[in-house]
Specification:
148 residues; 47% helix
Amino acid sequence: MPRATTHADDSAEEIEDDDIYPITDSCDQIRTKINTFINNGGMKVGEFQRAIGVTSTSYGNFMKKRGPYAGEGSIVYSAANTFFRKRELQGEKIPRKKAKKATNVDGKETGKNFDYDVSNIHFKGEDEGAVQIYDTCDEIRRKIAAHL
């Protein structure tokens, strides 16, 4: 027959986790770890909430706060800390997004070799170093990003 848990049992369990997995990160650092973990495909938000044993309301309230000490008393703070400490001890790291590889027009990976040869393109005044530029650096970056 399962034993009924009392409030004293719950607090003893929390103290145990805090002793084993001491909190060394600020609330902002824990929020950053949570966001990175979720955004990079570690788990979905609901799965993460179930994994650390918190409600969506307490999770949402903790994640909305800003500042290194905002949310210190939240169960999400200590539960997420325990979750990430256990992962660290098991040698699991927070997943990171992989860099996109260059692709050609057909959608095939090209690696570092691009299919476009621009070596025969020359601008008027290039030899003298007097090529007129009409775009700002930001505009050039936007144009390059549109082609990647």
